[in-house]
User: What shape does this take?
Amino acid sequence: MTRHSFRWEGLVFGLFFLAVVGNWAVWKQDLLTTRQLSLLTSGVLIFLGLVGVAATLWRSRPATAAPTPNHETIDEPTPEGPQDEEAHSQS
Assistant: This one.
């Protein structure tokens, strides 16, 4: 069984959905004033934004995995595509 990477999108959407449902429930039960509810909503959205920024910065870090000596390195094609020796002869 392979381990899958953590998906931040699901967490952020779940927290956003929970915030919307929680706000609706608080509004329906009249537990908070309109001012308190607006501040709570703003705080939740700011928190979710910070989580999104943190997830973006976390993913943008380059992986620094050095090749192991037991495995052969595989030449990856350049961004232009694989090199064609007939088209780029160096003789």
Helices lie at 8-29, 34-59. The chain is about 55% helix and 0% strand. The radius of gyration is 25 Å.
